[in-house]
Specification:
Elements (H helix, E strand, L loop, with lengths): L9 E6 L4 H11 L7 E7 L4 E7 L2 H4 L2 H7 L4 E7 L14 E5 L2 E11 L2 H10 L11 H9 L5 H11 L2 E8 L4 E5 L8 E5 L2 E5 L3 H6 L2 E5 L4 E5 L6 E4 L7 E2 L1 H6 L5 E2 L2 E2 H15 L6 E4 L5 H11 L7 E3 L12 H11 E3 L1 H4 L3 E6 L6 H12 L4 E6 L21 H4 L2 H8 L3 E4 L2 H7 L7 E2 L1 H4 L5
Parallel strand pairs: 14-23, 17-20, 20-21, 21-22
Antiparallel strand pairs: 1-4, 1-10, 2-3, 2-4, 5-6, 6-7, 7-8, 8-12, 9-10, 9-11, 12-13, 15-16, 18-19
Bound molecules: adenosine monophosphate (AMP).
The site of adenosine monophosphate has 18 residues, from helix 13.
Length: about 450
């Protein structure tokens, strides 16, 4: 069960701001695309921690009274959650909060701990009573049980016990801490917000609150925020960068800068590389909205074939992955996307999407375009075939559900009913993100896992 509950989320931390919880709320709203299942904020007023979390979108979980009267104090951390857990997932919403012998602590986590099962078994053996299935809860127990006198040392020793992907923010009554794993799998950036500071998964959160980007939290770095002081930095783990390339392919918002580069630009580069590497004759280049849009613009510009929004997206439903059963997923694709028939009729269309995971979306889209009268449908994907699951915080299904894990490109083409199908090569993907070294994790495309 533990293996099913991967976290693929957004985090935020605001320190030294009179409206800390409101800032955290806005930052979470900007990062809603990273998780729509649950949201939570914990604030600290110097004496006590306060917590509100629930299932649902950010705007549903918090009201004005919560932010004004409950989540008081000058620091706050928040989380939006993306997961496949069942009905009682409120238990697994974050922040994780605990009252222990040294006070109170709240933690938010984006990533996935690869040794969570072992650490948890060990803690349970020693008498710990777990309240949730979340890997993040391990940290609370590790910190609470640690014998060091200072909270900082407890945190340092605890993060040395865990492995995998973690961008973490900790909140105590008086301090805030931010930490990124040694590989920097997930993004985490630091910004200046008025007289205080903000950390967030994506810089689009800074833009909405008017914060100024300072720099990324470095892989393996711990930042300590204390009243009246500049953030203090400690190198806790030896940095060996392996940033998640899927952040660029699909996950992050195009207006964010992650790992030092703008996501929109990276996606456009992928589209250009795709046009160069996998050309095909056609009358129109159309994106699968919204994910495929920047790559389709790049493809159109590079190939000289006109770009058109041939598929419209209904924005009032969630992402198709959220519902776990196949029937609901199928229905949701239909609810979400519709063709602009007059534009497509009789045309040879080149459809650009960012990825094929199970193949459901592509199959539906191609059927829809053919029903709308397309003469030919050529599918071009701006990333390599997704052959392997992610253990570092992206919600990919088990290997046997990944269509590219057991089928060739031709077989997938036949399955989805396209006239032709091509993927971007891994080399071209790496070049598109200006990678001059092996600092990106491409395990979902190559099966080469570093941890
Ligand atoms: P599928 O229908 O399973 O092949 O899913 C492919 C579609 O899902 C593409 O349009 C992607 O943009 C999108 N997608 C890829 N990865 C994810 C993910 N981790 N969570 C949600 N959607 C995704």
């Amino acid at each position: 069960m533990l293996d099913d509950l991967n976290e693929k989320c957004a985090v935020v931390g605001v320190f030294g701001n009179d409206e800390a919880s409101k800032m955290a709320f806005l930052a979470l709203h900007a990062q809603q695309h990273r998780g729509q299942e649950a949201a939570g904020i914990s604030s600290a007023d110097g004496v006590k921690l306060h917590l509100i979390k629930n299932r649902g979108l950010v705007t549903k979980v918090f009201n004005e009274d919560d932010l004004e009267n409950t989540l008081v104090g000058r620091s706050a951390i928040g989380h939006t959650r993306y997961s496949t857990a069942g009905d009682d997932s409120i238990l697994d919403a974050q922040p994780v909060f605990a009252r222990y012998n040294r006070g109170e602590m709240a933690i938010v986590h984006n990533g996935n701990l690869t040794n969570a099962a072992e650490v948890r078994a060990d803690l349970i053996e020693k008498g710990a009573i777990f309240q949730t299935y979340m890997d993040t809860e391990n940290l609370i127990h590790l910190i609470a049980k640690n014998k060091q006198a200072k909270l900082l040392d407890r945190i340092i020793e605890s993060v040395k016990t865990i492995q995998g992907a973690f961008s973490l923010v900790f909140l105590s009554r008086k301090k805030m801490f931010a930490m990124r794993d040694a590989h920097g799998f997930r993004p985490l950036s630091l910004g200046k917000l008025g007289d205080g500071y903000i950390v967030a998964s994506e810089t689009c959160a800074f833009d909405i609150v008017g914060a100024e980007f300072i720099r990324d939290v470095e892989p393996g770095e711990l930042l300590i925020f204390e009243d009246g002081k500049e953030p203090q930095s400690i190198k806790v783990l030896e940095p060996t960068p392996k940033h998640c390339i899927f952040e660029y392919v699909y996950f992050a918002r195009p207006d964010s800068n992650v790992f030092g580069q703008n996501v929109y630009e990276m996606r456009k580069n992928m589209g250009k590389a795709l046009a160069h590497e996998k050309p095909v004759e056609g009358d129109l280049v159309i994106p699968v909205p919204d994910g495929g849009v920047p790559a389709a613009i790049g493809y159109a510009q590079e190939s000289g074939i006109p770009f058109e929004m041939g598929i419209m997206r209904n924005h009032y439903i969630g992402r198709t992955f959220i519902e776990p059963t196949q029937e609901i997923r199928d229905l949701k694709v239909k609810m979400k996307l519709s063709p602009v028939t007059s534009m497509i009729k009789g045309k040879r269309v080149i459809v650009i999407d960012d990825s094929i995971v199970r193949g459901t979306t592509s199959m539906r889209i191609i059927r829809m375009l053919k029903e709308a009268g397309a003469a030919e449908v050529h599918m071009r994907i701006s990333s390599p075939p997704t052959t392997d699951p992610c253990y570092y915080g992206v919600d990919t299904p088990d290997k046997d559900k990944l269509i590219a894990s057991s089928r060739t490109c031709d077989e997938i083409c036949e399955y989805i009913g396209a006239d032709s199908l091509s993927f971007l090569s891994n080399d071209a993907l790496l070049k598109s993100v200006n990678s001059d070294s092996d600092k990106y994790c491409t395990a979902c495309f190559t099966g080469e896992y570093i941890v």
